Fold:
Amino acid sequence: MLSMTRIGLAPVLGYLIIEEDFNVALGVFALAGLTDLLDGFIARNWASQKSALGSALDPLADKILISILYISLTYADLIPVPLTYMIISRDVMLIAAVFYVRYQTLPTPRTLSKYFNPCYATARLKPTFISKVNTAVQLILVAASLAAPVFNYADSIYLQILWCCTAFTTAASAYSYYHYGRKTVQVIKGR
Structure:
């Protein structure tokens, strides 16, 4: 339910940013972040609340939210186009790799219903350390970019430094998945 809330908030955030209602967008972004934290807390502390569907929806909700935020913040001229292109491209490559791994680890006969059934887990992607750092840096940049017009620092050199840090961690994260490839995938036995 919390992941679905985050997915639902993503287009609302995009709309608010495009309409330049940054005060409200900042509040909605905080709400979306709260749902993500709460979702993780509940999954870690109450085993009965963990589900295969939830473990598939959580990263999907994050990707949808980040993609919409970066595209809309770029549209509002708060994040440069090349950086957004880099981030979206990395995510598309990761999603393509996940689809490939899913296909490779699915036992025969491979069917569409098995392939798209989130309750039928065959592999788990373990994020690299730099990927976790990258996620944090990307979220910090989104928060800082959303806050920039509210607190009048859209032309700050610190925001530009954050763009560079985000580009570096995004590139390093993409490389880490390429370099460590198989080590980041854990095949679930018995499927």
Notes: Residues 6 and 174 are 25 Å apart (CA to CA). The radius of gyration is 18 Å.
